[in-house]
Description:
Blueprint: E1 2-6, H1 18-32, E2 36-42, H2 47-51, E3 54-64, E4 67-76, E5 84-89, H3 91-94, H4 105-122, E6 129-133, H5 140-146, E7 158-162, E8 170-171, E9 191-192, E10 195-197, H6 198-205, E11 208-211, H7 214-219, H8 228-233, E12 238-240, H9 267-282, E13 290-297, H10 306-316, E14 322-329, H11 331-338, E15 348-352, H12 356-365, E16 368-371, H13 381-387, E17 391-395, H14 398-403, E18 414-416, H15 421-436, H16 438-450, H17 455-470
Parallel strand pairs: 1-2, 1-6, 2-5, 6-7, 7-11, 11-12, 13-14, 13-16, 14-15, 16-17, 17-18
Antiparallel strand pairs: 3-4, 4-5, 8-10, 9-10
Helix pairs in contact: 1-17, 5-6, 9-12, 10-15, 13-16
Bound molecules: adenosine-5'-diphosphate (ADP).
Amino acid sequence: MEIFHISAECYPVAKVGGLADVVGALPKYQNNAGHRVRVVMPCYDTKFRKENEFECVHWGHVKLGNFNFPFNILKEQTDKLEFELYLVEIPELFDRKEVYGYEDDIERFLSFQIAALDWIIGRNEIPDVINCHDHHTGLIPFMMLYCDKYQKLQNTPSMITIHNGLYQGQFGFDKLYYLPEFDLAHVKVLEWDNCINSLAVAIKCAWAVTTVSPNYLNEINYSANGLESLFNLVRYKSKGILNGIDVEVWDPATDAMLEKNYSLKNFEKGKQENKEKLCNLFNLDPSKPLFSFIGRLLEEKGGDLLPHASALALSENFQELNILILGSGNAVIETQLNSLLSDYKGNYNTFIGYNEELAHLIYAGSDFLLMPSRVEPCGLNQMYSLRYGTIPIVRRTGGLKDTVIDFGDDGNGICHDQASVGDICYSIQRAVDLYDDKKSLNKIREIGMKTDHSWGRVCQEYIDIYNLIISKK
Ligand code: ADP
């Protein structure tokens, strides 16, 4: 089967969060299972773009209302990612360092979607299925169905995979004229809550809708940032598929970013060496349990709870534990976290920013990983930490509920229900007690390390849905 994945992110080309990890791994496993898989994404000004060879396989112009943007389709030459990678180069809009966060993001991602479809219809072959990811690609299923120039794709199944339903890519009808020509009888399809809502459009038009965990699919029926009733209406074509992880990239036995590689056989010693390295780097005490957080410092991740919870846990257990935070996001949260540095010197530290290498070292060298999320469509951090023998401490929400079971129920982690400082601190206290009981601690670490969260196990579920929608053609 020929599968196209269209996405704003893909690891290692450009990564902001879990979307990149998924689009960098699932296609590889699908390719290795015998399918022809292509990933199409914008061409940002990234290290990957500079350090690799590309060939221009197509060029054209995107017409966006009165604007006209030249574009090139660049194919990565080596296929070293184990799938074919195509970058949509639109220099005026994407030759920038960041993936998101610009005033013209609507123009950028709409141009990207149009250029991708222009190229796809110009090829000799029509793909068997087009898998779109999140709202940045949400207008593609609409354009395939209704835009005159994409008529060739009307009968090609499209699927939208929702990695995060909080972000929906809304914009006003004043920009309707950006879209390629279509029969205005269908204009209502674009509307949700008086604006064009890219994610809602995809949910309406795609032949199948998937979320990145089964529990998240249940949750969005009553909490989806305004799209609840729509999700209820499309239940018949929806499925929650738990994300996998790339067990080649995330393997403590071979991970080149670690101080010391280790496996199930020697994890106690291996983790301790990584912990010592981390503690050296951040002036922490390696004899005490190390609690870490990695992620975007936003309310959805419970980031706003971290300053207070850290201060309380450290003052109640002063000198009994270390806390290390890696992340960036809300400037107020960042400042609050940094304001604790002087009070808890030697037991607390932060790295405000994004650092892939440090993240790997933290998964390996920490004892516990904090995930106090309010919303977590799947969450990959807990799966990485399990694989690295680090015990996740999670709020039972979204995919965290699907993947982490409390050790009191013979599980692999520590769970609480409320997004509150009290619940986080209670879990930290349980973890400190557990840390003193090395036999139980190691048993739980082993359970985590043995859990199979690989894409190899999950990838067939995607193929089954593709087959289902192809059979409806
Ligand atoms: P998100 O909602 O951000 O996509 P996920 O748990 O699905 O959350 O994925 C987060 C991914 O981003 C993981 O690979 C995690 O290690 C990585 N990550 C998040 N923040 C940082 C950071 N500041 N530095 C390095 N890696 C990070």
